[in-house]
Amino acid sequence: MPIKVTLNVVLAERNVKSKDLASHIGITEANLSLLKQGKVKGMRFETLDAICRYLECQPGDILRYAPEADLAE
Fold first, then answer.
1. Is the C or the N end of the chain the one with fewer CB within 10 Å?
2. Alpha-carbon distance 65 to 20, whole Å?
3. Quick one: DSSP state of residue 27?
């Protein structure tokens, strides 16, 4: 899939633990882990909003479009 999740990078930059983010936005640590790994097919805008509010970031900070052709380079 050409959409890559870079949430783990933003968490590290802000020194935020996954456990704290999951608790604050109301999802399980397991679901947050799947999201961080890019193993989900979609995300609710409500969840994206909560993540961005907590981390004080933009959606583009945690999601990146990388067409398959770019990945081969």
1. C
2. 27
3. -
